TrEMBL record:
Pfam families: GST_C, GST_N. Gene3D superfamilies: 1.20.1050.10, Glutaredoxin (3.40.30.10). Residues 107-232 form the GST C-terminal domain. Belongs to the GST superfamily. SUPFAM superfamilies: GST C-terminal domain-like, Thioredoxin-like. This is Glutathione S-transferase. Keywords: Transferase. GO terms for molecular function: transferase activity. It comes from Epibacterium ulvae. Coiled coil: none annotated.
Length: 241
């Protein structure tokens, strides 16, 4: 069961026996962790970090996430039994996979493949798609050079992903993994990034395949009503049905 709180009253809820606490806002990086917590079937509570109001700069949150970015988590039962704070969505995914022994391959070779594509998302798709989204939708004045640069780079990255998915059912091989959980939230926003899937049939297949997973849907739906951007019409239409 998920319990929503705000940043001001979350400390009263934290005890040594509490579930994982997620600091979250409905963005692609936030979805990565909410989806993972649902997929791992881990109990969790949520503190909403309203990035539009500057909650990420609150002193209490900076103690958990020094980079003043969400998502972050507090696990009251860390590796040594003591509470542990984690920031950076990729690090959180790796931590949860190691904690549970799920969605992280069955051999060192499989784990290497998963880590490789996880890093690809963190170093490529996330930053480039984020910049594309900003310059195409939110920049106060249009800057054609920036729009074209990031739109083109996202198209290149999705071409890489499409070619990879032509070889395997999931991103890092034949099994669903944290690499898929990391990439799907960003790739699902392809419409707002002004991309086309007409020439990327394998990416289109994979997006729909993952959307059929109940845990992914539940993680994606967390506080979805707070998200102003509704450009992902293929997801929004499904929410309405």
């Amino acid at each position: 069961m998920v319990q929503l709180t705000n940043l001001r009253n979350h400390e009263a809820l934290m005890t040594a026996q509490d579930p994982i606490h997620l600091y979250y806002w409905p963005t692609p990086n936030g979805w990565k962790v909410s989806i993972a917590l649902e997929e791992f079937a881990l109990p969790y509570e949520v503190t909403l970090i309203d990035i539009g109001k500057g909650d990420q700069f609150a002193p209490g949150f900076l103690e958990i996430s020094p980079n003043n970015r969400m998502p972050a988590i507090t696990d009251p039962n860390g590796p040594d039994g003591a509470p542990i704070n984690l920031f950076e969505s990729g690090a959180i995914l790796q931590y949860l996979a190691r904690k549970t022994g799920q969605f992280y391959g069955k051999s060192p070779r499989e784990q290497i493949a998963i880590d490789q594509w996880l890093m690809w998302q963190m170093g490529g798709v996330g930053p480039m798609a984020g910049q594309a989204h900003h310059f195409l939708k939110y920049a106060p004045d249009p800057i054609p050079y920036a729009q074209n640069r990031y739109r083109t780079e996202v198209a290149r990255l999705y071409g890489v992903l499409d070619r990879q998915l032509a070889k395997s059912e999931y991103v890092a091989g034949d099994s669903y993994s944290i690499a898929d959980m990391a990439i799907w939230p960003w790739a699902s926003l392809w419409e707002g990034q002004e991309q086309s899937l007409d020439d990327k049939p394998h990416l289109a297949r994979w997006l729909k395949l993952l959307w059929e997973r109940p845990a992914l849907r539940k993680g994606r739906a967390l506080s979805a009503d707070l998200r102003k951007d509704k450009s992902d019409t293929w997801v929004q239409d499904d929410f309405k049905s």
